[in-house]
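We emphasize that the prediction below concerns an isolated chain of 98 residues; any contacts that depend on oligomerization or on bound cofactors are therefore not represented. The input was used exactly as deposited, without trimming of termini.
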Amino acid sequence: MIITLAIRADGDWATKVSSVTKGQELVIDASYGIINQSVRASKSRYLVIIIGGNGVTTIINLISQAINEKKFNWIHLFWSVKSPEDAIYLSNLKDLAE
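Result of the prediction step, given as a token string:
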């Protein structure tokens, strides 16, 4: 199986994984960044996320996990992109909203 990842090496995990070479085997089991840790530790029943550009890729997984775990009563996402063409994950977010 081939999986292509879009990784910008500026986060905790991304910095470590940026040195992986083509063909190297990886085991990826969860999101561990500071945002995910903060959301998991939250005692609130409401989540508001403000994100821009392709930073939404990690947020999609976070929202999916929160929905599956029924952690929040509601989740509001404010996502900004430069143009409609840049909203490449919009269909993923619409699926989560349903």
